[in-house]
Amino acid sequence: MTMPEERTRNVLQAGAFLKELAASKAVPKQVREEAYRLLRHYPTLSDIEAIAQHEEELWQRTESFFRTPYL
């Protein structure tokens, strides 16, 4: 099971990786453009901090099949 801290760290690391790809001249232009396109809608650090601050409220408001305990 992935812990919230691990998920947060992975999201931040993935964003950093996309930034590196978008800025690197060592990768093909098409890859750089796709990385940049994905970054336009990627959560920022402030977005992630805001989500973390309101996590309990968001959890209570979200009704989802995936939240149903399996065991």
Low-confidence stretches: none
* Overall pLDDT metric: 86
Count helical runs.
4
> What would you call the shape?
elongated
What's the multimeric state? single chain
The counted number of beta strands is: 0
Summarize the helix and strand pattern as letters. Answer: HHHH
Structural class: mainly alpha
Specify Rg, calculated over alpha carbons.
16 Å
Give the CA-CA distance, first to last residue: 14 Å
What profile does the largest beta sheet have?
none
The helix content is 55-70%
Q: What is the percentage of strand-forming residues?
A: under 5%
Characteristic terms for this protein:
71 residues, mainly alpha, elongated, 4 helices
Q: How would you explain this protein's 3D organization?
A:
With 71 residues, the chain is mostly helical. 66% of the residues lie in helices and 0% in strands. The protein contains four helices and no strands. It has helices at residues 4-23, 29-39, 45-53, 55-61. Helix 1 (4-23) packs across helix 2. It is elongated. It starts with a helix and ends in a 10-residue tail after the last helix.
